[in-house]
Structure formats: C-alpha cells, structure tokens
Specification:
3 domains; Maf protein; alpha+beta; 10 helices; five-stranded mixed beta sheet
Length: about 325
Amino acid sequence: MKQLLAAFLGGTLLLAVHAALAAPVAGLYQVREPLVQEADGGREETFSRAFATLLQRLTGSADSAQKAALAAYVAKPQSLALGYTYQEDELQVSFDPTSVMRVLREAEMPVWGSERPVILLWWVQEGLHGRQLLGDGQNRSLNLQQAALHRGLPTRFPLADLSEQVRADQGWLATDEGQLAELLQRYGGDALLVAETRETADGLTGSWELLGSALKLKGSLTGDNAVMAADQMFQQLAQEMAREYAVVPGLGESLQVRLQRLDLDGMLAAEKALQVFDGKLVFLQGDQAVWQIVALPEQVRSQLALYGFRELTSSGAAITDEPATALPKLLFAR
C-alpha cells in the first residue's frame, strides 16, 4: 500500500499545498523544569517532575504520573531520556519519543498526538497606560507562548495593529461569528482564546474564554504575573482538548474509513490525521482512499474534523475493486 501512496504523491503536479490548521508542537518531548533546591535528592525529584510534565502534555491529565503502571518510570525516568543537562536553576531534558510512546502504550494510556489545534491568543492587558492587546514578537507574548508550549499547546498572537487594538477595546461576543472566522483564517488559528486581564498591586487578575471552538470553556485568571496566571488556564485547556483528541491505541472497534475528494494536500492531511490510530491504507483510486483502523467513531470524527474533513451521509461514487468488508464504514470529504 506504500506503493499506492507513492503513486498518488508522485503522479500529481500540485507543488504548493495549503497547510492544515493543526500544527506540530515544537519541542513536545523537551522539558525545562525548575530545579528543586534540596541538598539530597533535589535533582532526582526535578527529573521526576520533568517526566510528569511530559506525561501531562501527552495525556492531558495532571494525574497521569500517579498511575501505578508508570510508577517505576516516574521514580527513575532517566532511561527514557536522550540527553539532559542541569543549569543553575533548571533541568533541561530531551525525552526519547519512541521509548516514551512504548511505555504509554504498555500502560494503555491515552495519547494526544503532536499535531494539535492552533490557538490564537487574544491577550488584553489593562494597566496604568490603558488597555493593550499583546502582539506577536513582544517579550510578554513570547513568555506566554513558552508557557503554553510547556503545557503542550501551540499558540499564536495577532499583529495587534491599529484595527485590532480598536477591536480589543470593543471586546468579543460569541455572536461575532463572521469577524471571528476572518480573524482565525488570517492567522491560521483553530480557536480564539480571549483573555481580559488587569494589573493590580498584588499581581494579575482577569477572565478568559475560548471562542470559535466546539469546546465551550471559560475561567478566571489570577497570579503574581501573567505567566503564572496563564499556566492554570493552559492546563485546563490542554486537559479538555486531550479529552477530545487523545487516543488509547487499540481501543475501540474495527472501522473502515473512506475519504473522498482528495488532492495532495488532502492525502497528506489524512495520513497525519489517521496515524494516531495506526491507520492502514488499504485502497486508493483517483481522489478516493480507504483506511482500516481500530478506534472509537467519535474520536475519528474529532480527529478528521481537525484537518478539515466533514462527514458525509451518502456513499458517493463507487470505487472499482474496493475491497469488500463487513466492517462499519465512515465516509468523509474535504
């Protein structure tokens, strides 16, 4: 079946493709953890915390490090590391993706793939100089992006030009669907995370809400600074998104997934979307392809929707010589 995919990719003259909105998380398996300052065992505890941070990124659950099946690795995760170094106040460690995935599979833990929804962060901060929308490339924006990556979330900031600063003063409503869609398309985002914050003598307070997503989430912000306040927000977002997208390999039923109207962009997107299920391409003809996977239908729908596929109710054009099967079928197009 690899020959089928190669023929598809090699036979097309389409050289430029549009990127899917989903984006890989940079440095997903690289963790920077503050060093525990203790004379005895401080470095060992820091290493365990770093692995717990990685587990939370991959599963979405803050409690994953408490699972009995992972206890031995949490206690001594050094065998799962490709390399690490201790700086003055932090541990920097790169974990081996293959080894970590093997451990999670053996423990039957849900795994959230590296391709994740892109969040456009609309961070409005009110202070002594009025309301300000943070823009891409600013120091505070970079710090918040790093905080989001620490929790496994890819984020982007708007340019914060004059028109967007005016929009920040007006605020966003859930009914602003058209303008919201335009903004997300402009920056290649899947959802808009609106944070309204205020600086006080005691730190930072505010509220946040996720717009443009099927997930209806909102909460409060409080912390000594913006990064500390945002961390709880990012943790909650990661947890809820992981519930939507994380997959326990091999859990579910055997399914046949048929995709239609595929160009090169669509074929590459399909490969990325279904690889988390260990999907097997079993047939390819024209602009249609068939995969066999083991998964829960709801998770397949969520994963393919992330890459721009929508489910169809009709069977569409028949595929000549399509392999006969009694497996339940799901049909999508892009």
